[in-house]
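re: ur question from the group chat, yeah i did fold both. here u go
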Amino acid sequence: MVVIGLTGGIACGKSAVAALLAERGVAVVDADHGAREVVAPGSDGLAAVVEAFGEGVLSPDGTLDRKRLGERVFGDEAARRRLNGILHPRIAQWSAERFMELAAQGAALVIYEAALLVENGAHEALGGLVVVTARPEVQRARLMARDGIDAAAAQARIDAQWPLEKKVAVATEVIDNSGDREALQAQVEALAARLCSRAGVI
């Protein structure tokens, strides 16, 4: 089974690429989904987050308030490291279980969609890496529209991430999502054909 990483900059559209690949029958394991699963109500992950950051990160219904937690760790490197220390091992275990399930089902090609593949070095163990990019002004505008924030706040979030150039430098495939939906679909169509050919999928 070939596992290909899929990552990109914030608001560049990696989830859109993952969805288009899934539409073409490619199996996708989404680390963001895993990140929600490992802190579901009643999980040891949620208990560990509450122990580290207090009851204030919970919503009234007992679920994790991801926005409030994000505000707690944004700009606080020690807090972010502490949170990552709780989440990353659990997400890795969740992902490994999904890979084993897919392998048992006979999947030849799997896309692993995750935000921090390059930052944590996980891309080095994969069979390839797709990086989704967009021009800086497009990235900023999408982030402003998506999160309802101003240009300065959007730029601050972009600046808090690794530069896209660092991710592109280790990519085996690059998708430029600066254009419209049709342009993205055409690129993903060609990408899916290349990846399936590499994995021996007809």
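okk and heres the other one u asked abt
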Amino acid sequence: MSGCACENDSDFSAIEGKQKKVLVSVMLINLGTFCMMVLASYQSQSSALLSGTLDNLGDALAYAVSFAVVGAGLLIKARAALFKGVLISLAAGLVAVQILYRCFNLEVPISETMGIAACLNLLANIYCLFLLTPFRNDDLNMASVWECSRNDVFEGLAVIVTALAVWMSQSGLPDIVVAFFLLVLFARSAARICSAALIQISEVSSPVQSH
């Protein structure tokens, strides 16, 4: 029996090691793309691109939190997932403020800058999703990270379409419309992650409270 326990411990350690390795990789990728997107969103004056920029920063922080709680108990992982849900909510709030500002200052973004940055960002996001997919069902911590990465792919595709629409119409309206769509996506994802985290926190905490 003791040999079986040691083998199980070894298996868990190997899984945790793989999780940490992939989380470090996607965190560094998101930090790199964040720096690129900050410059591109400033130069292009795009709300849709700004949403991607804030999302990359939020993801990098979320991956750092996920890395910190690998191997922790269910309660800590649930709280970490709740924190990540709050981060996504904050990003959504900042995008909402930017959209409101742009509604009163409807300038035409620079579509070429948007397109180049969005393509590079999409490639990075697809690679992150590819790295995280094998771990999506490990636990709530990794599932929430995978959902963040999946949102990034949708966001990247949406910004590319936006850049094309802005170029064809020479209007800032498509940028605002897509930014609003991404706002809804972020808000729904944040609600889903927070809900799952609160349910798990309640389930894990209730036996403790009953004693």
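fwiw on the second one: The first helix runs from residue 2 to 44. Residues 2-210 form one domain. idk if thats what u expected
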